[in-house]
Prior knowledge:
binds zinc ion, 267 residues, Trna Endonuclease, Chain: A, domain 1, 5-stranded antiparallel sheet
Amino acid sequence: MEKTFVIDSILSICKSIGFPFTTKVKTDKWKADVVVDCATYKIAFNVCNLPRNVEDVYLAMHQERVCGCWMLLPSFRKIVLSKLPCFYIQDIRGEVNVLLHKIREEEHSLPLDDFIHSMILGNIRYTETMKVKYVEVCFYQKICWKCHEKNHIYLINKLISTEGVEIESGIDSFYPEIVNGVKQYLDANSGLNIKMGEIKPRYSKFHHGAYMSFGCAYCDSLFGSTYIQDAYDNLVFCVKTLPKARILISRDLVVPANRWYKRDLKY
Ligand SMILES: [Zn+2]
């Protein structure tokens, strides 16, 4: 992956949408490979292996209404993805894309041109919280530890916001709208052959009390929290092949997100 290839892509997108640009910009406080003039703001692109002092430079640019964007060439020296606008370019079998976020093994990336175009138009954004619109659950097969019948439980795979932001779950699996939504989904899709026991409080000797739980559809035995955690630990290996359902959340449910995303109003 050559730096000039990425810079040429930026320039050709600027030309196609008619935005003025300047290359090799150097001021007292910062420098950039390309600065794009987007009328009310500017975007300063830097294409490099490993950026230095990103935070300071970003703030210096910000004071001049310039939004910094660092595009990192494929490198073995991975830095941690953070709220700073640093994005890894990936070249996967000749397809060049830019990584925004990762959920388990599922990478959220955009084709290079789409990323550059969206960045220039102000549609690549960072958010600390998001309002959940859908919860995607997947149905995971469990054999009852007691009667050995085939059962299913559901695991929360991801949360999807009104703007199409996706994050790994950080909410209670037994949130009432999820429990009801899954029940309605299974009632309407009985042909899927997903057999799930009732979700209700069950007594646990270990916990000296009753708690909301999954259980066997046949003998009503409790599926304890370690049993469920095992399934979550295994999820990364099988999530792609599991049956899934999207449950609509109509109440206000705001959760931490802390990630970059492309604003997408189709949701
Ligand atoms: Zn059972």
